[in-house]
Amino acid sequence: MPKITPPTTLPEQIAAQLRRRIASGEFPVGARLPTELALAEELGVSRNSVREALRSLVHSGLVGARAGYGTFVLATSDVAPTLARRISQEREADVAEVRFILEREGARLAASRATPEERQQLLEALDARRVATDGPSYAAADIAFHRLLLQASGNALLAELYRGVGGNEQALLHLNTPDIDFAAEARHLRHIDDAHAAIAEAVIAGDADAAADAAQRIEELVRDWVRTDRRPPSTDGDYIP
Description:
Protein name: HTH gntR-type domain-containing protein
Order of helices and strands: HHHEEHHHHHHH
Number of helices: 10
Strand content: under 5%
Domain HTH gntR-type: 8-76
Number of strands: 2
CATH superfamily of the largest domain: GntR ligand-binding domain-like
Strand order of the largest sheet: 1-2
Helix content: 55-70%
Structural class: mainly alpha
Organism: Zafaria cholistanensis
Radius of gyration: 20 Å
Pfam families: FCD, GntR
InterPro entries: GntR_C, TF_FadR/GntR_C, Tscrpt_reg_HTH_GntR, WH-like_DNA-bd_sf, WH_DNA-bd_sf
């Protein structure tokens, strides 16, 4: 005899529909969801039901609410938020190792799968790194570069896993402050910048092995940089979208 499935509540149905729409790409990461009122009118339900559904998505880490701005998509699935909660319990070295493996293989795949538009976006992100004149703008450009690289892999789960283990944000935390002496830091970042250019060139050329080798080179350089910097990256495991 088949088991009886308990009926789902209206807020649960709304949350499930929003999950599907987020996963399908209708609402990509960083996108703002329609307002409670707009969703209620679209779905023919009450604002209270929509509010409860959104609250459940916030709790799961899929979306985040910003007072006065609305509700924004933080992840395309529960994978990244779940991993982010887990990594705080793991050794920093283990997390870094997984992150570098994901990036190396992501670079290899991107060289084979990146679309012309993704290649152009990668070059634009590389240019933004080059022209950055302060820590926060450099960090933002670098985060964008690495996310675009993983996105260009054509494997959404790989990109989500990379985000879930913190991406490259932790290594950039001390740069992401307005009072950092960026000129001094930039001298130490020159070789890392060259390795990023090598990744972009390999992806443009469609050379998978060269892209993976360049990503490996970045791993080695970043480890040296972090080891010699007197302000090592945080290990709190916070998920940064």
